[in-house]
Amino acid sequence: MDVSGAFHTADRWAFHLVNRTLQNPAFDFLMPILSDKRAGLLLVAVIVPILFARCGRQVWPRIAVAVLAVALSDLGATLLKDLLQRTRPCHLIADVHLLTGCTGSFAMPSGHASNMFALAGAVWTARTRWRWAVAALAVGVAYSRVYLAAHYPGDVIVGAVWGGAIGWALMRGAISLLPPRCFPRANPAPIERPPASDHPNVP
After folding, report:
1. What is the pLDDT of residues 110-125, one digit of tens each?
2. 105 with 130: CB under 8 angstroms?
């Protein structure tokens, strides 16, 4: 079996594992919420004002870079989908566990996974206090896309790598180019050491 054939076989097996074998009522309720873009926008609408209230203006450079990372990730994922033209599993596999319908766009890479990992990559690189929560949310969203039969696992892995790389690169570039005050946690203050004495104590 060639490499491509082995990849598709493993991808299909992993898809069945997530979509059918691990199916349960709790995930049937949770996964559509994680995949719903409206829920994501509502979360952003709640969190951004809280961040501004707590952190002030210094949070805006990080938000701007994160938004740019998600936008570029989404644009790139759309172009890659049209280039690779991989059909979604919900159109090819008869016995999928389908909860939210099956869109007609191509599958690889997953736009949801790409965008969420772009956000997670940017947030992680900025060393924010809530980077673990954003990373966990990105993993949950990526998993939901397979559980809902919208993507194969390979689609979300490619999307995660693509988006994460963009988020990391943009935030790392911003930290390097912008003043340190824009990213205080990513640029920790150097430890000040007391000056050496010119007259050491003699026993």
Report:
1. 999 999 999 999 888 8
2. no
